[in-house]
Amino acid sequence: MLSKITVWGDSILKGIVLDEQKGRYVPLRDQSCLALTAKRLGIEISNHAHFGMTSEKGRLLVQRGLQQAKEEGAQAGLIGFGGNDIDYNWRAISEHPEEEHLPNTPPEQFRRNVEEMIELHERAGIMPVLMSLPPIDAPRYFNWLSRGLSAKNILQWLGDVQQIYRSHLSYDAIVREVAREKGCALLDVRQAFTKLADSLPYLCLDGIHPNLQGHALMEGVFEAGFAAI
């Protein structure tokens, strides 16, 4: 049974949700998926996730912080990236929809970053554990990202709103492929969402962050996954 886990990821693993009344992002703190998991399994979790974090920045953070995590007794490291990697500079797209625009982290680099983070954990003697990407709701996210911008121009560049979902899904596929190739444990939070008859009540208004109910759903995946390791 694991007793100490270190976590590297973005705002989802940080427990950030959209406060719809205030219109800003806030931390769930003791109600986040990881906080609930730590309490229910009686394990210590050192959370290095950050809002807006990409795998490129995460890789550098892991390089700098993994030795300390090892010295502190971390037995496993949860790696959860992708949502910010597949995101775009929507303002630039709004202003110049006729131009080519690349995601924050192109897919080949995203794969290399995830693979390197796995290898860094293995060399440190810490078990790497990957997390799949929670699904997004493309219409909600399109409405959110296009605020104050030209929705018409962004849609012209996208082709159709569901292209956002397909692009996001392709990065989830990379995580799954790397997990299979490297023989890593995968905490499949995406499957927990897609099994639902309707996952919308589990997502914030922005369409990309799991809400309080979503974090409770993810906690179930974490609890079962970590207990089995």
Describe the protein:
With 229 residues, the chain is of the alpha/beta class. The chain has a single domain (4-228), classed as Rossmann fold, CATH 3.40.50. The protein has helices at residues 11-14, 33-41, 55-71, 90-95, 107-123, 138-145, 151-158, 163-182, 189-194, 212-228; strands at 4-9, 16-19, 24-27, 44-47, 76-80, 127-131, 185-187. The strands form two sheets. It has a five-stranded parallel sheet, sandwiched between helices. Strand 2 and strand 3 form a beta hairpin. Helix 2 (33-41) crosses helix 10 (212-228). The radius of gyration is 17 Å and the shape is globular. The model has no long low-confidence stretch (mean pLDDT 97).
Structure characteristics:
two-stranded antiparallel sheet; globular; Rossmann fold; 229 residues
Short synopsis of the structure:
By secondary structure, the chain is α/β, with parallel strands linked by helices.
Order of helices and strands: EHEEHEHEHHEHHHEHH
Q: Show unreliable segments.
A: none
Strand content of the residues, in percent? 5-15%
Strand order of the largest sheet: 4-1-5-6-7
Q: Could you describe the largest sheet, including whether it forms a barrel?
A: 5 strands, parallel
The CATH class turns out to be Alpha Beta
Termini gap: 7 Å
Mean pLDDT: 97
Question: What would the CATH topology be?
Answer: Rossmann fold
Helix content: 40-55%
Task: Tell me the count of domains.
Answer: 1
- Strand runs, count: 7
Report the radius of gyration as a whole number of Å: 17 Å
Structural class: alpha/beta
The number of helical runs is 10
The CATH homologous superfamily: SGNH hydrolase
- Morphology call: globular
CATH architectural arrangement? 3-Layer(aba) Sandwich
